[in-house]
Specification:
With about 450 residues, the protein is an alpha/beta fold. It has 3 domains: about 110 residues, no CATH class; about 50 residues, no CATH class; about 240 residues, no CATH class. About 50% of the residues lie in helices and about 15% in strands. The strands form 2 sheets. Strands 4, 5, 6, 7, 8 and 9 form a 6-stranded mixed β-sheet that branches. Strands 2-1-3 form a 3-stranded mixed β-sheet. The protein is elongated, with a radius of gyration of 32 Å. It starts with 12 loop residues before the first helix and ends with a helix.
């Protein structure tokens, strides 16, 4: 008996099953056919790669929406069947449309509302499939937060339309972003409540620690109609980085100086602070920064005044000390500071001190002399240069720009203080490469 040959055009069981499934969902079959037609490129004028990419994106969006809709219908059927099998007393009261948003747009499904002998209103579908009426999927929440923490909420809504093909109002972006920002703040605050002094025995040899404040425009809560009074409030940013590494750890707060110091300690520990480490603090010389550096890092820390901030004082004084060669005089004093000749710099300033009683704004030499004389223990530039440590606070200055200013100091922006604090924590979490942890 000879074995029958299988026809080369015969469908395999897997192919037959696929065809049956596509026939059950004609809308999805139409989308698949459109995608296959794009792939063939046989008929009509040849499209460019950009044209095919644009058409494919649109078809994938439609396929995604069709798939979500068909899945929702099937889920409703399954939930209803399981409910009636568990409790034969349940009866369907009526139907209601359940709607929620996902990255493919608005999904709507007619769900049955039930009643039983013990409950008059049963709506099991939303809880079973993990959605809320008029809510947003977790993936869409991530998209809205991603755009909303980088751009104004109006611009973020436009980005959703551009990249995902459907409209979301700015208020929805705002709600999603602030909701996730609140979660980010709670997550970071939980970390900050732990002690930062539990250090490993071995860490980075040198950790660079910098701190500075920036002013954020804020408004008081109240009706949004009319112009509300604005007030500038200081938000402090701290950062730490192990010498030779590219990863910087940030923290920000409107809180007290002590709270800022504690967060600075957490940043240093996350950056590699160990019992063997030396902490190299750099800042503009503000009292709160110097004091917190000593309080937090103690014997392991040293503090250096930002060389470029000192140079600003020298530049202003140079116009009085040697107006005809101001730049040359300033460079001479900078060279002296670099090699540790601080007494020579002080002497050069003392020669040209303005008379007592001169107004502050008209006494740049006296201002510079006072600034340096109050910080003589923070001018050890030769040591920093010898060890390859920075003498400027560029790390914290750039941190201000890309962590805080890029979102919180847009032109014309004014924030409720609590909202600004939430957004700052969200951006800190992203800058610290903890973004994924917010969604896992």
């Amino acid at each position: 008996m000879t074995k029958k040959r299988t026809s080369p055009n015969a469908f395999s069981p897997q192919e037959v099953r696929l065809l049956e499934q596509l026939r059950e969902h004609p809308e999805m079959m139409e989308r698949v056919q459109s995608i296959l037609e794009l792939a063939r490129s046989e008929a009509g004028p040849l499209k460019t790669a950009d044209e095919v990419e644009g058409l494919l994106i649109e078809e994938m969006r439609r396929l995604g929406h069709a798939t979500m809709s068909q899945w929702a219908i099937g889920a409703e059927e399954r939930v209803s069947t399981e409910l009636t099998s568990r409790d034969p007393t349940v009866r369907s009261r009526r139907k209601k449309t359940l709607k929620w948003w996902c990255v493919f747009g608005l999904v709507a499904v007619r769900e049955r509302i039930w009643r039983s002998s013990t409950q008059s209103y049963l709506r099991p579908l939303p809880q079973q499939v993990g959605v809320t009426a008029r809510g947003r999927s977790r993936r869409l929440e991530r998209v809205l937060t991603d755009f909303g923490c980088e751009h104004s909420f109006i611009r973020a809504a436009q980005s959703v339309r551009e990249h995902y093909g459907f409209e979301m109002g700015a208020s929805a972006v705002r709600a999603a972003t602030l909701g996730q920002a609140q979660r980010a703040r709670a997550r970071l605050q939980e970390e900050y409540r732990q002690s930062f002094r539990q250090l490993p025995a071995v860490g980075a040899e040198h950790v660079i620690a910098e701190a500075d404040g920036t002013m954020i425009c804020s408004v008081e809560p109240g009706p949004r109609k009319g112009r509300r009074p604005r007030e500038w409030k200081e938000m402090r940013l701290v950062a730490a980085q192990a010498l030779g590494r590219a990863t910087t750890v940030y923290a920000a707060t409107f809180g007290s100086v002590d709270e800022t110091g504690r967060r600075w300690g957490h940043c240093a520990r996350a950056a590699g602070w160990g019992l063997n480490s030396q902490i190299h603090g750099v800042g503009d010389g503000a009292d709160w920064i110097r004091l917190q550096s000593r309080e937090v890092f103690r014997d392991q820390g040293s503090f250096l005044c930002d060389f470029f901030h000192v140079s600003e004082y020298l530049g202003a004084a140079a116009l009085r000390c040697r107006a005809s060669q101001a730049d040359r005089w300033r460079r001479t004093q900078q060279q002296r500071l670099r090699r540790g000749a601080v007494p020579l710099v002080m002497a050069a300033l003392e020669e040209h001190l303005e008379p007592l009683g001169t107004p502050e704004e008209e006494a740049p030499v006296r201002n510079g002399h006072r600034y340096l004389s109050n910080r003589l223990d923070c001018l050890d530039y030769p040591r920093a240069l010898r060890l390859g440590l920075p003498i400027g606070s560029g790390m914290i200055e750039s941190g201000h720009r890309h962590v805080l200013h890029a979102r919180l100091k847009k032109a014309g922006a004014a924030w409720l203080q609590d909202h600004a604090d939430q957004i700052a924590h969200l951006r800190v979490l992203r800058a610290n490469r903890q973004w994924e942890s917010l969604w896992n």
